[in-house]
Amino acid sequence: MVKSKSKESPSRKLMHTDVQLHVYGVPFSLNRGLLAARSSKLAALLKENDEDDISHLLGDIPTDSETFELVARFCHGFDIILSPDNIIKVLCLAHYLGMSEIHSTNNLTKKAGLYFQNNVLSSWNKTIKALKSAEIILQQAADLSLVDACAEFIIAKVLHNPSLLGEPMRNITTADDDSENDENVYKSNVKRRLFVHDWKSEDLTLLSIALYEPIIRAMVHREVPLEYVASSLFQYLSKWVFLDTKREDDDPSTYTRNSQREIIEAVERLLPQKRGLIPSSLLSKMLQSAIILDAHTECKNGLETRIGKQLDQATVKDLLIPAQGYAKEEQYDTVSVKRILKNFYSNYESTEKSGLVVVAELVDDFLAEVSSDIDLKLNTFLSLAELSQAATAGTNRNSDGIYRAIDIYLDRHRYLTDWEREEVCRVLDCSKMSPEACEHAATNEKLPVRVTVQILFSVQLKLKDNVTKRIKRGPDNRLLKLEEDEEDAKGTSNSEEEMMKAEMEMMGNKVLELEKECHMMRREIQRGSSQHKIQKEKTSMWKEMKRKIGCMTSSHETNCHVKKKKVHPR
Length: 570
Known about the structure:
The chain is an all-alpha fold and 570 residues long. Among the domains are: 18-141, Potassium Channel Kv1.1, Chain A, CATH 3.30.710.10; 161-170 and 203-244 and 251-347, no CATH class. The protein is built from 25 helices and 3 strands. The chain has helices at 32-38, 40-48, 65-75, 87-97, 108-120, 124-133, 138-143, 146-160, 181-185, 190-195, 209-221, 226-242, 254-270, 280-292, 297-309, 316-319, 334-347, 354-370, 378-391, 400-412, 418-424, 435-442, 449-471, 486-526, 531-549; strands spanning 3-4, 19-23, 26-30. Helix 6 (124-133) runs antiparallel to helix 8, helix 8 (146-160) packs across helix 11 and helix 18 (354-370) packs parallel to helix 20. The longest helix is centred in the last third of the chain and has 41 residues, at 486-526. It is elongated. Belongs to the NPH3 family. Pathway: Protein modification; protein ubiquitination.
């Protein structure tokens, strides 16, 4: 019989055993003859050594105490129970001990091999369980091609039914704050799991990255649809990285951090390159984890490049990457965002400028979000804004978004000098502001005086242009017809010419009055008037100008608020 000496008194005499073995600290007392009858390796060792304890001769034995006890019971004639959880370990140990048909008929290697072929390599669940159990003896299992056999079966099943990897991800592009979105993007189909016969209760996420990576790489090589591969990759990250990632100050164990870092670097290498296949929200989540875990620079750069290539599909939330480290100076990692922007612009190949406009508006919204950070540097704000402005030069995109960001930044950074406030406003194109934004700016005491005056001049030029266009059109807003009778055309031409001269003269007088009033306002400011007086004067002048131009019919129309989404700070 197989006996464990740890369960008996040390003084008890062992009557039916004549050799002792210690496997990972657990002592076994075994019959020499029965061991030699089944194991060619033990037979040779026992023949050459008369010692009672031969443990030191089996220092490289590829097993654990539970598997060794199972094999020893087989040697002593007991029935053993094979399962997916122990079959690969039993096969490796049987091969190590030389338990082949050449040494003894009906030996363990044949018995375990048949079980592996017929019972394990016919079931998705059992194959994955068997692979999982092989992780502690991975090299020995690989040498016997047991890992390759399991991997080949899994790949063949996935080629026939890719949904075994999980349902394809949904690309969420709306700015939804629902926290369940990220999980639902790559969640398995519950209905399929309930009604498909023998649906997998186990999946590849159970495997270590050392087993998972080569299997996924082989699937990609065998052209398994990439949307299913991507789904499996993010299920894997969800299980091993996303749920357990911690910040540096939480002091996670070094082993956990190193393991998670290895996983996220491996998954980044496996990610398909196809644009739009993986939602930007998940790529952003992965990048944040890589930064927290201090992953290799190549890994972080790869994720930034992927996000950059599809930045026109991203949301503001995807760019709000928290800064890391004890010496962090800003709330968000704006340096990473700048690299993402540069990746987008350098990879943008479309002749249409719509994608550039979308990203420029995204940057405006991002700036509005981060501008409330009291630690956001002026140079950082300007560099992001300039990237956006330069890319959309020549388009009709309005400046309301950047104005809103400037307004928030000036409000949160009241300590800025006059020169610095001028620098902040340098990226604002006053000629592209909406009427609502212009009216808000005219009463905005945070703006430098020069910018306010510039906005007012921009407004009057727009008004002048609009009046000129109206003069050139008929009373029903259509161009004058030239095909009419020559005499009527001549009379009409003279009449219209006189009317145009009169209205142009009147418009010129109004413009001169406006310029004079703006000049008076600037001179009053330079004389050192109080801020309250300046604000009051600016407001009254704005109202007066609108009244004179004819844009305001009554006093109750003076309040023209800008929509919060576009202009007001949050």
